[in-house]
Protein backbone atom coordinates (compact mmCIF):
# COMPACT_ATOMS: atom_id res chain seq x y z
CA UNK A 1 0.00 0.00 0.00
CA UNK A 2 1.35 3.41 -0.97
CA UNK A 3 1.87 5.64 2.10
CA UNK A 4 -0.92 8.05 3.03
CA UNK A 5 0.64 11.43 3.75
CA UNK A 6 -2.13 13.74 4.91
CA UNK A 7 -2.38 12.45 8.54
CA UNK A 8 1.34 13.18 8.93
CA UNK A 9 0.87 16.58 7.25
CA UNK A 10 -1.91 17.50 9.70
CA UNK A 11 0.24 16.52 12.70
CA UNK A 12 3.23 18.42 11.32
CA UNK A 13 1.02 21.50 10.76
CA UNK A 14 -0.16 21.21 14.38
CA UNK A 15 3.42 21.17 15.70
CA UNK A 16 4.60 23.95 13.38
CA UNK A 17 1.64 26.15 14.30
CA UNK A 18 2.48 25.83 18.00
CA UNK A 19 6.13 26.52 17.20
CA UNK A 20 5.21 29.71 15.36
CA UNK A 21 2.85 30.82 18.14
CA UNK A 22 5.37 30.31 20.94
CA UNK A 23 8.41 31.53 19.02
CA UNK A 24 10.78 29.01 20.61
CA UNK A 25 13.81 27.68 18.79
CA UNK A 26 13.04 25.24 15.94
CA UNK A 27 15.46 22.83 17.61
CA UNK A 28 13.11 22.70 20.59
CA UNK A 29 10.47 21.30 18.24
CA UNK A 30 12.75 18.80 16.48
CA UNK A 31 11.62 15.72 18.41
CA UNK A 32 7.90 16.57 18.20
CA UNK A 33 8.24 16.99 14.43
CA UNK A 34 9.93 13.60 14.09
CA UNK A 35 7.20 12.01 16.22
CA UNK A 36 4.50 13.75 14.17
CA UNK A 37 5.87 12.35 10.92
CA UNK A 38 6.37 8.86 12.35
CA UNK A 39 2.93 8.66 13.96
CA UNK A 40 1.23 10.25 10.96
CA UNK A 41 2.70 7.63 8.64
CA UNK A 42 2.22 4.70 11.01
CA UNK A 43 -1.48 5.28 11.76
CA UNK A 44 -2.75 4.76 8.17
CA UNK A 45 -0.44 1.79 7.75
CA UNK A 46 -1.83 0.18 10.90
CA UNK A 47 -5.36 1.05 9.84
CA UNK A 48 -4.65 -0.58 6.49
CA UNK A 49 -4.23 -3.91 8.25
CA UNK A 50 -7.93 -3.77 9.16
CA UNK A 51 -9.38 -1.60 6.40
CA UNK A 52 -9.62 -2.83 2.86
CA UNK A 53 -7.81 -0.20 0.85
CA UNK A 54 -5.53 2.80 1.13
CA UNK A 55 -8.24 5.46 1.13
CA UNK A 56 -10.31 4.15 4.06
CA UNK A 57 -7.12 3.55 6.02
CA UNK A 58 -6.11 7.18 5.53
CA UNK A 59 -9.52 8.44 6.66
CA UNK A 60 -9.34 6.29 9.77
CA UNK A 61 -5.82 7.54 10.47
CA UNK A 62 -6.82 11.18 10.27
CA UNK A 63 -9.82 10.59 12.55
CA UNK A 64 -7.50 9.09 15.16
CA UNK A 65 -5.22 12.11 14.74
CA UNK A 66 -8.08 14.54 15.30
CA UNK A 67 -9.31 12.60 18.33
CA UNK A 68 -5.81 12.82 19.83
CA UNK A 69 -5.57 16.56 19.16
CA UNK A 70 -8.97 17.27 20.70
CA UNK A 71 -9.34 14.68 23.47
CA UNK A 72 -12.33 16.37 25.10
CA UNK A 73 -14.36 16.74 21.92
CA UNK A 74 -17.29 14.31 22.15
CA UNK A 75 -18.27 14.90 18.53
CA UNK A 76 -14.91 13.58 17.37
CA UNK A 77 -15.26 10.54 19.61
CA UNK A 78 -18.66 9.78 18.08
CA UNK A 79 -17.21 10.35 14.61
CA UNK A 80 -14.39 7.97 15.39
CA UNK A 81 -16.79 5.25 16.55
CA UNK A 82 -18.87 5.67 13.39
CA UNK A 83 -15.75 5.46 11.23
CA UNK A 84 -14.58 2.31 12.98
CA UNK A 85 -18.01 0.75 12.45
CA UNK A 86 -18.06 1.64 8.76
CA UNK A 87 -14.59 0.29 8.22
CA UNK A 88 -15.43 -2.89 10.07
CA UNK A 89 -18.38 -3.63 7.77
CA UNK A 90 -16.74 -2.23 4.65
CA UNK A 91 -15.36 -5.56 3.36
CA UNK A 92 -18.85 -7.10 3.60
CA UNK A 93 -20.42 -4.14 1.82
CA UNK A 94 -17.75 -4.21 -0.84
CA UNK A 95 -18.45 -7.86 -1.67
CA UNK A 96 -22.17 -7.17 -2.07
CA UNK A 97 -21.81 -3.91 -3.98
CA UNK A 98 -22.42 -3.73 -7.72
CA UNK A 99 -19.58 -2.48 -9.97
CA UNK A 100 -21.34 0.85 -10.47
CA UNK A 101 -21.76 1.33 -6.71
CA UNK A 102 -18.11 0.48 -6.11
CA UNK A 103 -17.14 3.11 -8.65
CA UNK A 104 -19.07 5.68 -6.63
CA UNK A 105 -17.14 4.93 -3.43
CA UNK A 106 -16.64 8.08 -1.31
CA UNK A 107 -13.18 7.07 -0.07
CA UNK A 108 -11.11 8.43 -3.02
CA UNK A 109 -13.01 11.72 -2.79
CA UNK A 110 -12.29 11.86 0.95
CA UNK A 111 -8.60 11.27 0.27
CA UNK A 112 -8.44 14.14 -2.24
CA UNK A 113 -10.32 16.52 0.08
CA UNK A 114 -8.16 15.68 3.09
CA UNK A 115 -4.96 15.94 1.05
CA UNK A 116 -5.93 19.39 -0.19
CA UNK A 117 -7.01 20.37 3.33
CA UNK A 118 -3.67 19.33 4.84
CA UNK A 119 -1.79 21.36 2.23
CA UNK A 120 -3.95 24.38 3.03
CA UNK A 121 -3.13 23.96 6.74
CA UNK A 122 0.61 23.92 6.03
CA UNK A 123 0.34 26.99 3.79
CA UNK A 124 -1.67 28.81 6.49
CA UNK A 125 1.04 28.07 9.06
CA UNK A 126 3.65 29.39 6.63
CA UNK A 127 1.69 32.61 6.10
CA UNK A 128 1.37 33.02 9.86
CA UNK A 129 5.12 32.59 10.26
CA UNK A 130 5.75 35.32 7.70
CA UNK A 131 3.25 37.68 9.33
CA UNK A 132 4.88 37.24 12.74
CA UNK A 133 8.39 37.67 11.36
CA UNK A 134 9.44 34.16 12.34
CA UNK A 135 11.00 33.06 9.04
CA UNK A 136 14.16 35.16 9.31
CA UNK A 137 14.51 34.36 13.00
CA UNK A 138 14.20 30.63 12.44
CA UNK A 139 16.69 30.77 9.58
CA UNK A 140 19.21 32.37 11.94
CA UNK A 141 18.36 29.84 14.65
CA UNK A 142 19.02 26.91 12.35
CA UNK A 143 22.50 28.23 11.56
CA UNK A 144 23.52 29.73 14.91
CA UNK A 145 22.22 26.84 17.02
CA UNK A 146 23.27 23.95 14.81
CA UNK A 147 24.86 21.46 17.23
CA UNK A 148 27.76 20.49 14.96
CA UNK A 149 28.72 23.96 13.74
CA UNK A 150 32.20 25.17 14.76
CA UNK A 151 32.04 27.83 17.45
CA UNK A 152 35.65 28.41 18.35
CA UNK A 153 36.14 31.74 20.08
CA UNK A 154 38.11 34.24 18.08
CA UNK A 155 41.74 34.62 19.12
CA UNK A 156 42.29 37.79 21.08
CA UNK A 157 45.50 39.35 22.35
CA UNK A 158 43.59 40.40 25.49
CA UNK A 159 42.43 36.88 26.42
CA UNK A 160 45.67 35.93 28.17
CA UNK A 161 45.19 36.16 31.90
CA UNK A 162 41.43 36.54 31.77
CA UNK A 163 39.64 34.34 34.31
CA UNK A 164 37.17 31.58 33.68
CA UNK A 165 33.69 32.68 34.74
CA UNK A 166 31.18 30.24 36.22
CA UNK A 167 27.62 31.48 36.76
CA UNK A 168 25.15 29.37 38.76
CA UNK A 169 21.55 30.58 38.47
CA UNK A 170 19.31 29.07 41.16
CA UNK A 171 15.87 29.96 39.88
CA UNK A 172 13.68 31.85 42.34
CA UNK A 173 16.06 31.48 45.32
CA UNK A 174 14.88 33.90 48.04
CA UNK A 175 17.19 36.12 50.06
CA UNK A 176 18.18 34.76 53.48
CA UNK A 177 16.40 37.39 55.58
CA UNK A 178 13.14 36.85 53.65
CA UNK A 179 13.38 33.09 54.10
CA UNK A 180 13.52 33.68 57.84
CA UNK A 181 10.81 36.34 58.12
CA UNK A 182 8.36 34.86 55.60
CA UNK A 183 8.87 31.10 55.92
CA UNK A 184 10.70 30.66 59.25
CA UNK A 185 13.62 29.04 57.40
CA UNK A 186 17.13 29.66 58.76
CA UNK A 187 19.45 29.66 55.73
CA UNK A 188 22.43 31.23 57.47
CA UNK A 189 24.49 28.04 57.13
CA UNK A 190 24.53 28.33 53.35
CA UNK A 191 25.58 31.98 53.49
CA UNK A 192 28.34 31.09 55.95
CA UNK A 193 29.55 28.30 53.63
CA UNK A 194 29.73 30.73 50.71
CA UNK A 195 31.66 33.33 52.70
CA UNK A 196 34.05 30.65 53.88
CA UNK A 197 34.84 30.10 50.20
CA UNK A 198 35.70 33.79 49.65
CA UNK A 199 32.31 34.86 48.32
CA UNK A 200 30.99 38.34 48.94
CA UNK A 201 27.29 37.94 49.72
CA UNK A 202 24.94 40.92 49.36
CA UNK A 203 22.68 40.70 52.38
CA UNK A 204 20.22 43.18 50.86
CA UNK A 205 20.53 42.32 47.17
CA UNK A 206 17.65 42.87 44.75
CA UNK A 207 16.69 41.69 41.31
CA UNK A 208 15.65 44.47 38.95
CA UNK A 209 12.85 42.35 37.51
CA UNK A 210 10.43 39.68 38.75
CA UNK A 211 10.51 37.46 35.65
CA UNK A 212 13.46 35.35 34.55
CA UNK A 213 13.43 36.40 30.90
CA UNK A 214 13.40 40.11 31.79
CA UNK A 215 16.22 39.66 34.32
CA UNK A 216 18.44 37.92 31.75
CA UNK A 217 17.57 40.41 29.01
CA UNK A 218 18.57 43.28 31.27
CA UNK A 219 21.77 41.59 32.45
CA UNK A 220 23.08 40.39 29.10
CA UNK A 221 22.22 43.59 27.23
CA UNK A 222 23.35 46.10 29.89
CA UNK A 223 19.89 47.65 29.85
CA UNK A 224 18.17 49.78 32.43
CA UNK A 225 14.80 48.82 33.89
CA UNK A 226 13.27 51.70 31.93
CA UNK A 227 14.58 50.27 28.65
CA UNK A 228 13.19 46.86 29.55
CA UNK A 229 9.77 48.36 30.27
CA UNK A 230 9.76 50.27 26.97
CA UNK A 231 10.75 47.14 25.03
CA UNK A 232 7.71 45.23 26.26
CA UNK A 233 5.57 47.12 23.75
CA UNK A 234 7.53 45.88 20.73
CA UNK A 235 5.34 43.83 18.41
CA UNK A 236 6.26 40.15 17.92
CA UNK A 237 9.33 40.54 20.10
CA UNK A 238 11.11 37.31 21.08
CA UNK A 239 12.96 37.82 24.36
CA UNK A 240 14.91 34.60 23.88
CA UNK A 241 16.54 36.13 20.79
CA UNK A 242 17.44 39.33 22.63
CA UNK A 243 18.91 37.25 25.47
CA UNK A 244 20.96 35.02 23.18
CA UNK A 245 22.21 37.96 21.10
CA UNK A 246 23.09 39.98 24.20
CA UNK A 247 25.87 42.55 24.05
CA UNK A 248 27.64 40.75 26.88
CA UNK A 249 28.17 37.67 24.70
CA UNK A 250 29.54 39.82 21.90
CA UNK A 251 32.02 41.30 24.40
CA UNK A 252 32.99 37.84 25.63
CA UNK A 253 33.71 36.62 22.09
CA UNK A 254 35.69 39.77 21.36
CA UNK A 255 37.80 38.98 24.42
CA UNK A 256 38.37 35.40 23.26
CA UNK A 257 35.95 33.60 25.57
CA UNK A 258 34.15 30.36 24.74
CA UNK A 259 30.59 30.34 26.05
CA UNK A 260 28.97 27.21 27.51
CA UNK A 261 25.35 26.90 28.69
CA UNK A 262 23.47 24.07 30.37
CA UNK A 263 19.85 23.84 29.27
CA UNK A 264 17.14 24.70 31.82
CA UNK A 265 14.51 23.09 29.51
CA UNK A 266 12.53 26.35 29.59
CA UNK A 267 12.98 27.50 26.04
CA UNK A 268 12.22 31.20 26.45
CA UNK A 269 15.43 31.58 28.50
CA UNK A 270 17.61 28.80 27.06
CA UNK A 271 21.01 30.02 25.81
CA UNK A 272 20.93 27.86 22.69
CA UNK A 273 23.30 30.17 20.80
CA UNK A 274 26.13 29.53 23.23
CA UNK A 275 29.25 28.05 21.65
CA UNK A 276 28.48 24.83 23.54
CA UNK A 277 24.88 24.11 24.52
CA UNK A 278 24.47 21.15 26.88
CA UNK A 279 21.06 19.52 26.58
CA UNK A 280 20.55 17.01 29.39
CA UNK A 281 17.94 15.12 27.38
CA UNK A 282 14.67 15.54 29.28
CA UNK A 283 11.59 16.82 27.50
CA UNK A 284 11.71 20.59 27.21
CA UNK A 285 8.86 22.93 28.10
CA UNK A 286 7.59 23.01 24.50
CA UNK A 287 7.38 19.23 24.41
CA UNK A 288 5.64 18.95 27.79
CA UNK A 289 2.97 21.43 26.74
CA UNK A 290 2.45 19.56 23.46
CA UNK A 291 1.98 16.28 25.31
CA UNK A 292 -0.64 17.95 27.49
CA UNK A 293 -2.43 19.32 24.44
CA UNK A 294 -2.78 15.88 22.91
CA UNK A 295 -4.49 14.41 25.94
CA UNK A 296 -1.69 11.94 26.69
CA UNK A 297 -1.47 13.55 30.13
CA UNK A 298 -4.62 11.62 31.08
CA UNK A 299 -2.89 8.37 30.15
CA UNK A 300 0.24 9.31 32.08
CA UNK A 301 -1.80 10.22 35.17
CA UNK A 302 -3.30 6.73 35.09
CA UNK A 303 -0.21 4.70 34.20
CA UNK A 304 2.83 6.82 35.17
CA UNK A 305 1.62 9.33 37.79
CA UNK A 306 5.17 10.20 38.90
CA UNK A 307 6.52 10.79 35.40
CA UNK A 308 6.48 14.60 35.49
CA UNK A 309 8.02 14.90 38.95
CA UNK A 310 10.70 12.30 38.12
CA UNK A 311 11.58 14.22 34.96
CA UNK A 312 11.82 17.49 36.88
CA UNK A 313 14.12 15.88 39.45
CA UNK A 314 16.28 14.41 36.69
CA UNK A 315 16.55 17.83 35.05
CA UNK A 316 17.85 19.41 38.27
CA UNK A 317 20.29 16.59 39.03
CA UNK A 318 21.59 16.48 35.46
CA UNK A 319 22.14 20.25 35.47
CA UNK A 320 24.46 19.91 38.47
CA UNK A 321 26.23 16.89 37.00
CA UNK A 322 26.71 18.58 33.63
CA UNK A 323 28.07 21.66 35.39
CA UNK A 324 30.54 19.58 37.37
CA UNK A 325 31.75 17.93 34.16
CA UNK A 326 32.28 21.34 32.61
CA UNK A 327 34.22 22.48 35.67
CA UNK A 328 36.52 19.47 35.46
CA UNK A 329 37.27 20.16 31.80
CA UNK A 330 38.29 23.82 31.82
CA UNK A 331 40.26 24.57 28.66
CA UNK A 332 43.36 26.71 28.29
CA UNK A 333 41.43 29.70 26.93
CA UNK A 334 38.93 31.59 29.09
CA UNK A 335 35.44 30.11 29.37
CA UNK A 336 32.11 31.56 30.45
CA UNK A 337 29.89 28.78 31.80
CA UNK A 338 26.25 29.43 32.63
CA UNK A 339 24.24 26.83 34.53
CA UNK A 340 20.53 27.45 35.03
CA UNK A 341 19.11 25.20 37.76
CA UNK A 342 15.30 25.31 37.78
CA UNK A 343 15.10 25.21 41.58
CA UNK A 344 14.11 26.14 44.27
CA UNK A 345 11.41 27.50 41.99
CA UNK A 346 8.22 25.47 42.35
CA UNK A 347 7.58 22.58 42.32
CA UNK A 348 9.57 21.37 45.33
CA UNK A 349 10.62 17.87 44.29
CA UNK A 350 13.50 17.07 46.66
CA UNK A 351 13.62 16.38 50.38
CA UNK A 352 16.68 17.54 52.33
CA UNK A 353 18.42 14.17 51.92
CA UNK A 354 17.85 14.12 48.17
CA UNK A 355 14.98 11.66 48.24
CA UNK A 356 11.92 12.57 46.17
CA UNK A 357 9.05 14.51 47.65
CA UNK A 358 5.63 12.97 47.18
CA UNK A 359 4.29 14.74 44.10
CA UNK A 360 2.18 13.05 41.45
CA UNK A 361 0.27 14.07 38.36
CA UNK A 362 1.23 15.30 34.92
CA UNK A 363 0.31 18.93 35.66
CA UNK A 364 2.75 19.98 38.37
CA UNK A 365 2.35 23.21 40.37
CA UNK A 366 4.92 25.37 38.57
CA UNK A 367 4.27 28.46 40.70
CA UNK A 368 4.54 29.09 44.42
CA UNK A 369 0.86 30.09 44.77
CA UNK A 370 -0.18 26.89 42.97
CA UNK A 371 1.95 24.77 45.27
CA UNK A 372 0.59 26.55 48.34
CA UNK A 373 -2.94 25.95 47.07
CA UNK A 374 -2.23 22.23 46.72
CA UNK A 375 -0.42 21.62 50.01
CA UNK A 376 -1.21 24.55 52.30
CA UNK A 377 1.33 27.14 53.46
CA UNK A 378 2.89 25.18 56.33
CA UNK A 379 3.53 22.11 54.20
CA UNK A 380 4.79 24.29 51.36
CA UNK A 381 7.30 25.96 53.71
CA UNK A 382 8.45 22.56 54.98
CA UNK A 383 8.98 21.30 51.44
CA UNK A 384 10.78 24.49 50.46
CA UNK A 385 13.16 24.15 53.42
CA UNK A 386 13.98 20.56 52.46
CA UNK A 387 14.65 21.41 48.83
CA UNK A 388 16.82 24.37 49.85
CA UNK A 389 18.96 22.13 52.04
CA UNK A 390 19.44 19.73 49.15
CA UNK A 391 20.24 22.56 46.71
CA UNK A 392 22.66 24.17 49.17
CA UNK A 393 24.64 20.94 49.46
CA UNK A 394 24.77 20.42 45.69
CA UNK A 395 25.68 24.06 45.05
CA UNK A 396 28.54 24.02 47.53
CA UNK A 397 29.77 20.77 46.01
CA UNK A 398 29.68 22.38 42.55
CA UNK A 399 31.49 25.47 43.80
CA UNK A 400 34.18 23.28 45.34
CA UNK A 401 34.59 21.44 42.02
CA UNK A 402 34.98 24.72 40.15
CA UNK A 403 37.52 26.16 42.60
CA UNK A 404 39.49 22.90 42.72
CA UNK A 405 39.72 22.93 38.92
CA UNK A 406 40.62 26.63 38.74
CA UNK A 407 41.31 28.59 41.95
CA UNK A 408 41.33 31.84 39.92
CA UNK A 409 37.83 31.34 38.52
CA UNK A 410 35.16 33.96 39.02
CA UNK A 411 32.10 32.25 40.46
CA UNK A 412 28.69 33.91 40.74
CA UNK A 413 25.81 32.25 42.59
CA UNK A 414 22.59 34.18 42.13
CA UNK A 415 18.87 34.02 41.58
CA UNK A 416 16.86 35.80 38.92
CA UNK A 417 14.21 36.95 41.42
CA UNK A 418 12.96 36.12 44.89
CA UNK A 419 10.08 33.98 46.03
CA UNK A 420 6.83 34.05 44.08
CA UNK A 421 4.75 33.25 47.15
CA UNK A 422 2.27 35.75 48.62
CA UNK A 423 3.96 37.80 51.31
CA UNK A 424 2.77 37.47 54.90
CA UNK A 425 4.27 40.81 55.94
CA UNK A 426 1.75 43.32 57.27
CA UNK A 427 0.57 45.76 54.61
CA UNK A 428 2.01 43.83 51.67
CA UNK A 429 -0.29 43.39 48.66
CA UNK A 430 -0.03 41.83 45.21
CA UNK A 431 2.39 41.68 43.42
CA UNK A 432 4.41 41.52 46.68
CA UNK A 433 7.36 43.41 45.23
CA UNK A 434 9.42 43.42 48.42
CA UNK A 435 9.47 39.62 48.59
CA UNK A 436 9.59 38.95 44.85
CA UNK A 437 12.68 41.11 44.24
CA UNK A 438 14.67 39.96 47.29
CA UNK A 439 17.08 37.60 45.55
CA UNK A 440 20.33 35.75 46.23
CA UNK A 441 23.59 37.32 45.03
CA UNK A 442 27.07 36.06 45.90
CA UNK A 443 30.29 36.74 43.97
CA UNK A 444 33.72 35.17 44.26
CA UNK A 445 36.25 37.31 42.38
CA UNK A 446 39.82 36.47 43.49
CA UNK A 447 42.00 39.56 43.72
CA UNK A 448 39.24 41.88 42.48
CA UNK A 449 37.14 43.12 45.40
CA UNK A 450 34.33 45.65 45.17
CA UNK A 451 32.28 44.13 42.38
CA UNK A 452 29.17 44.05 44.57
CA UNK A 453 28.22 45.63 47.86
CA UNK A 454 25.55 44.90 50.43
CA UNK A 455 22.74 46.53 48.38
CA UNK A 456 23.72 45.52 44.86
CA UNK A 457 21.24 44.60 42.18
CA UNK A 458 21.93 42.50 39.09
CA UNK A 459 21.84 45.47 36.70
CA UNK A 460 25.53 46.36 36.90
CA UNK A 461 27.07 43.02 37.84
CA UNK A 462 28.43 42.20 34.38
CA UNK A 463 29.73 45.71 33.53
CA UNK A 464 31.64 45.76 36.83
CA UNK A 465 33.11 42.32 36.20
CA UNK A 466 34.32 43.37 32.77
CA UNK A 467 35.83 46.61 34.02
CA UNK A 468 37.59 44.89 36.92
CA UNK A 469 39.18 42.21 34.78
CA UNK A 470 39.66 43.92 31.40
CA UNK A 471 39.88 47.61 32.27
CA UNK A 472 36.99 48.46 29.95
CA UNK A 473 33.27 47.85 29.94
CA UNK A 474 29.89 49.42 29.35
CA UNK A 475 28.70 52.29 31.53
CA UNK A 476 26.55 51.54 34.53
CA UNK A 477 22.79 51.95 34.40
CA UNK A 478 20.39 53.10 37.13
CA UNK A 479 19.62 50.24 39.51
CA UNK A 480 15.89 50.80 39.22
CA UNK A 481 13.57 47.92 40.08
CA UNK A 482 10.65 47.31 37.73
CA UNK A 483 7.80 45.08 38.83
CA UNK A 484 5.81 43.65 35.92
CA UNK A 485 2.33 42.63 37.05
CA UNK A 486 -0.16 40.46 35.18
CA UNK A 487 -1.94 43.60 34.04
CA UNK A 488 0.43 46.09 32.34
CA UNK A 489 -1.36 49.03 33.93
CA UNK A 490 -0.57 47.58 37.35
CA UNK A 491 3.20 47.41 36.69
CA UNK A 492 5.33 49.94 38.53
CA UNK A 493 8.81 51.05 39.60
CA UNK A 494 9.50 49.69 43.07
CA UNK A 495 11.22 51.85 45.68
CA UNK A 496 13.16 49.42 47.82
CA UNK A 497 12.76 49.71 51.60
CA UNK A 498 16.32 48.56 52.29
Q: Quick gist of this model?
A:
The chain is α/β, with parallel strands linked by helices.
Describe the structure.
- It is a single chain.
- With about 500 residues, this protein is an alpha/beta fold.
- About 50% of the residues lie in helices and about 10% in strands.
- It has 20 helices and nine strands.
- The strands form two sheets. The protein has a seven-stranded mixed β-sheet with strand order 2-7-6-1-5-3-4, sandwiched between helices. Strands 8-9 form a two-stranded antiparallel ribbon.
- A hairpin with an 8-residue loop joins β8 and β9.
The total count of helices amounts to: 20
Gross morphology is globular
Say what the CATH topology of the largest domain is: Alkaline Phosphatase, subunit A
| Major beta-sheet overview | 7 strands, mixed
CATH superfamily of the largest domain: Alkaline Phosphatase, subunit A
Query: pLDDT under 50 segments (min length 5)?
Result: none
Name the helicity range. 40-55%
Percent strand: 5-15%
Radius of gyration: 27 Å
Per-chain topology:
Elements: H1 6-22, H2 30-50, H3 54-69, H4 74-96, H5 99-103, H6 107-131, H7 134-144, E1 165-170, H8 176-183, H9 188-196, E2 200-201, H10 212-220, H11 225-231, H12 239-244, H13 247-254, E3 258-262, E4 276-278, H14 285-294, H15 296-303, H16 307-328, E5 335-341, H17 368-375, H18 377-405, E6 410-414, H19 433-436, E7 441-444, H20 461-470, E8 481-483, E9 492-494
Parallel strand pairs: 1-5, 1-6, 3-4, 3-5
Antiparallel strand pairs: 2-7, 6-7, 8-9
Amino acid sequence: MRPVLYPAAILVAFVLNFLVETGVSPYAAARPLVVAVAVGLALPWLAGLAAAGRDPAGVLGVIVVLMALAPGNRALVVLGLVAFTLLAVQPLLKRRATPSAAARSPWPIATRVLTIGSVILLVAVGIKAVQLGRVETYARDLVAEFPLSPHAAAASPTSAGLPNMFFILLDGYPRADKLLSEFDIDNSGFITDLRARDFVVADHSRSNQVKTELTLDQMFNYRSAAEIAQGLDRANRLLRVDINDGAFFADLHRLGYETVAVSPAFEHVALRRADVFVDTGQLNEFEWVMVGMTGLSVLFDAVLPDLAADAHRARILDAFEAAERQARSFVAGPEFIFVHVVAPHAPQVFAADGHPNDLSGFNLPYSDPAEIARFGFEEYARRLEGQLQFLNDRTIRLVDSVVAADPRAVVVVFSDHGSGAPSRESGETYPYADLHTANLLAVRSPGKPGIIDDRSTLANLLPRLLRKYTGTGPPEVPETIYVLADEPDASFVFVRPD
